[in-house]
Amino acid sequence: xxxxxxxxxxxxxxxxxxxxxxxxxxxxxxxxxxxxxxxxxxxxxxxxxxxxxxxxxxxxxxxxxxxxxxxxxxxxxxxxxxxxxxxxxxxxxxxxxxxxxxxxxxxxxxxxxxxxxxxxxxxxxxxxxxxxxxxxxxxxxxxxxxxxxxxxxxxxxxxxxxxxxxxxxxxxxxxxxxxxxxxxxxxxxxxxxxxxxxxxxxxxxxxxxxxxxxxxxxxxxxxxxxxxxxxxxxxxxxxxxxxxxxxxxxxxxxxxxxxxxxxxxxxxxxxxxxxxxxxxxxxxxxxxxxxxxxxxxxxxxxxxxxxxxxxxxxxxxxxxxxxxxxxxxxxxxxxxxxxxxxxxxxxxxxxxxxxxxxxxxxxxxxxxxxxxxxxxxxxxxxxxxxxxxxxxxxxxxxxxxxxxxxxxxxxxxxxxxxxxxxxxxxxxxxxxxxxxxxxxxxxxxxxxxxxxxxxxxxxxxxxxxxxxxxxxxxxxxxxxxxxxxxxxxxxxxxxxxxxxxx
Length: 502
Description:
This protein is an alpha/beta fold. It folds into three domains: 66 residues, Elongation Factor Tu (Ef-tu), domain 3 (Beta Barrel), CATH 2.40.30; 274 residues, 3-Layer(aba) Sandwich (Rossmann fold), CATH 3.40.50; 125 residues, Up-down Bundle (Lysin). The protein is built from 15 helices and 16 strands. It has an eight-stranded mixed β-sheet, with helices on both faces. It has a six-stranded antiparallel beta barrel with strand order 1-2-5-4-3-6. β1 and β2 form a beta hairpin. α5 packs across α6, α7 runs parallel beside α8 and α12 runs antiparallel to α13. It is elongated and about 125 Å long.
């Protein structure tokens, strides 16, 4: 068989014409520079903001800067394993974390990986860490109380399910203690809790986990730790990852309490990333979008309307102040985003008042709508009475002769402050809170030695419970003080304190 040269030429031309070599130059990039947990990658023209990239040695990174000829990537692993010239692959996925009930009772890192030594966590689903917050139509106004078990908070600055209440104060004033007590108090109340530790010491997180285990609170709690020793990118993603875990439960119609401890360190981690990414610094060297950093996180906390499942996320962000300055940049930002704040004062803490809550600067903007009627009945005038006491106290320092009415206000105020003292991990249920407030409201404590107020109150409660437990059960059940129950309470308390004074 004779083969002609022109036939071969025609065949080759046909093959070349139909040849399509599939090279996708947009899916592989090259590391131009790397250092301080930041990599600049050239060649990924189609990379998305927030997309995960895969570096050699199984190191992942997240796209945070989209420049004209390169992308800025924060590394979610050891940057010593990445070097210039390394090839980088797109995953075409945004960052996700494992979610679901399998995480309950576990301690995880920012990526949802177990760090408690109890083995790998196998979950059925994952969620992206960044999502758009539910819109107005999907939301419902806050109307159900989230009981913290702390009398001063539940009476004066009540928190509702779906609310965002800021806990703010100097270091070592009991901010974390309030959050942990609130988690402990959710036992048997159908609320799932998530504690996100941002920039805390590993020893501190270990102590918190130990306390939660002792109070059997880990059964319904997830602890996420992004410790101070970890790279800034892991601190940055931690609250968003925790919120994604909370949203999984919320969209199942469950109630969730999430604590961010604390957002000051989160803002510092973001400032570190932004400066390394060569973004323009603004006030206090924070980038211009530091407000959006926290607003997009806290807006995800809400109460869903019944037609969308009716679940809720209640957020307790914590912010640390310097010398009580709540007008600093990050504190004012978070105050303007949240629905109220609980302000802890160093002077009160040092004076032995626990919790050291400043009743004047603390406020709840929606919690009153979600307060039990029983608490409202006994705590309606509490804030005004404390304000009068603090005002008189400051005036009385300048004068020695005080009239009877001023002395009465001072005595009553001191009795209220003594009644509101509460030890850590010692949470009170509704009937106990209402009982204490009722006794204080009716001036039974005014003439007692202020150091014995708590002891006398506990004794009065125990004796009343032994003989009239049905009244306390009615308060817990009805969430209000019925007239017949109040009559019994008034009679018994009058008799108890008359016998006490004899």
